[in-house]
Amino acid sequence: MNISLPRTCSIENVQIQSLYQPLYSVHEKKYIGVEALSRGFYKGNLLSAFELFNLPSNEREKLELNKMCIRSALHNLGSQTDAESYTVFLNIDSSLMDYKGFSNQDFQIKADAAGVAPQRIVIELIESRVKNFDVLLRFASYCREQGFLIALDDVGAGYSSLERMVKIKPDIIKIDRELVNGVSEEFHKREVCRALIELAHNIGALSLAEGVETINDALECQELGADIMQGFYFSKPVEQICPVDIGAGKIALLVETWNFSASERDKNLRVNLNRVRKQAVIIHNALDQSKPEEWDDVLTSRVEAMSDIECAYILDNNGKQISVSALRSNLDYKRHYLFTPAQPGTDHSQKYYYLRRVEGQKWYISDPYISRATGNICRTVSMMFANKNDERFFLCLDIDN
User: Fold this and answer.
1) What tens digit of pLDDT does each residue of 31-76 get?
2) For the chain, what is the domain count?
């Protein structure tokens, strides 16, 4: 149970116990290591994390508590018989680098004393907590020279800086748990996670999604391409470093479910597209039986009857809009100047749904994007058609993603 600490309590009265949160590579279907966590006890009673890490009264005590946590984690790690089979992630309180008593070499000394090779350790840092960025860069450079890897923690939270990230050149980017939690349900979280995972891969780093608590979030992280995952879905922190097969059942279930759900997503997308294509053909037939000056009325009337379609418009062969943007009247959209339906004469030639078409391609479906007509997340399905004079046009339908 948690207790209230007396004023006389100090870090000398506290015992540190290390816990280990397993880490998994679902793509490789294997357990790859642990993140070392710390909990404190006072007279046999468990302290909350807030109580433990707010116990130090000055920078010296804060540094000593950090050292106690590292010593505990490394001591347990060095005593494992299967120690070569996994990696351990260790947290360094980055704010301590601004303290004059902090030493780059101290961490290396502790690893040597515990008999743990640097090549098995990943050092986690939160770059935003360091005031003197040059000190952080020197620490990261020193650690790399010794063989440690560097992970940036809580990326996407607080005041993390992309500029600093580029300069540090991390080996691993840990995506903050607040972004990961609910990523399967919230589009904006999903797209931010997607961007961070792509950023990690583009700069030569691994991506790690922390705080994965449900199978749906795990499936989404798998879909987005996360290299490593950790969280309660796989395992809660354990007192003993776990055997390599822990979580194997969860991984097997996740892989099987992901393979099935990916197939279902493809199937559902095909079904939805087929339905929209049929609606596009209905609109095209109505256009074909009308004069060009009647096309605005055709679009407006047809869109009202088709719940899948949010907006319809026609482009000429050069990507210029030649019709109104026909919005469904009961559509919920952002009423702001920035999100205004395009008018006849608008140039769409640089839009993805026009620019990326293959010559002669009749159908095209875009990736999801924010519609400038409505502010909603949509896809654009476009259909190429020709009139009796063999002039080419493109019927564009914005559909709810």
Assistant:
1) 888 899 988 888 878 888 888 888 888 888 888 888 888 888 888 7
2) 2
